[in-house]
Specification:
It is found in: Cytoplasm. PPIases accelerate the folding of proteins. It catalyzes the cis-trans isomerization of proline imidic peptide bonds in oligopeptides. Belongs to the PTPA-type PPIase family. The protein is an all-alpha fold. It has a domain of 131 residues. The chain has 16 helices and four strands. The strands form two sheets. Strands 1-4 form a two-stranded antiparallel ribbon. It has a two-stranded parallel sheet with strand order 2-3. Helix 1 crosses helix 15, helix 4 crosses helix 9 and helix 10 runs antiparallel to helix 15. The chain is globular and about 55 Å long.
Amino acid sequence: MESHDPSPHINDQQEENQTDTQILPETPSPPPSDATTAFSQPPPAWSDISPPSNYRPLRAPAINLPLHYSQQAIILTPVPQSQRVTTVSPPYHFQTPVKKIQSVDDLRRFHGSDACKNFLGFVVALSESIRGRKISDPCHQSPTVNSITSIIETLIRWVDEIPPVQQSSRYGNYSFRVWQDRLTENCESLMLEFLPDELRPATVEIVPYFTDSFGNSSRIDYGTGHETNFTAWLYCLARMGIIREEDYQAVVSRIFVKYLDLMRKLQLVYCLEPAGSHGVWGLDDYHFLPFIFGSSQLIEHKHMKPKSIHNQDILDNFSNEYLYLSCIAFVKKVKKGLFAEHSPLLDDISGVPNWNKVNSGMLKMYKVEVLEKVPIMQHFLFGWLIKWE
């Protein structure tokens, strides 16, 4: 799945394995769930440590993922490498995308495909585009980037126009379904705001990715599968040449940052439940990619180290510039108690010596813990732009 170019961040296999040993220490793991898991080893045995009593999950996630981390699988996974997106040319054959992954064998087939390799390479390229850069740093902003950012701002305004209803259930506010209905009704016209005339027929293919990027209206939940669909939507735009490599920094620092603002607002206002969350034993109840992009931002930073997440002054002053710090600050805002108890994996990662190791370990973890999990990827869509080979 990786290109043959040597990674700029990993000198050799020994350092790579050391990276994962540090980013995934031998922490106790909860018992496995019944969910199907691809490419994972049996979980390590329970110790006498149990999840902290002061952490209360919303309820059982809508899609039960295994609660353990496949440490060995992550260690053995090569660090994903960036790839240039292969663009399409006329004649176009846009089609309504559909779900194809139903089993571990289907997932293996996908991971052996050029489509999967190129998609993962796109994620790595986005990560590399923001390396060493702050969110506010100047970058190339094309009219397309500005248009997409404006669209997400519109979606944020809709939240203000559709307040949560009074209901007996604390979580999963039904007003989210009203917001989703408005999105579905207006999505095609939103896409036409930036699609050139010759690519207007692409709405049949890209609209389903976009509408599934913000959570599920039936379950009123959100998780890394929806986040991956948003990234797949961006990848489809790159496949059509609407997003170019010179846009990548802005895709992260303008579009994805605005998307994260929207999702946090949706999570808080409508009390979205985590879809298939690892809960207390995961990175975050909802997101993964901002940790990848955020760790890349901090590579070779002169002052901030992974352990700096425990410095509240740093979080207060720099979380608006660095996605990783923003994620930590948000976790501390919505979860009470000791950080090491409600976010043990993030606490463990803070002991990694540098951001290079955090970033490479995060990329490997994303491949294994998100893209290689049937309960997540069974909802992934395939059409003409992302082909089922």
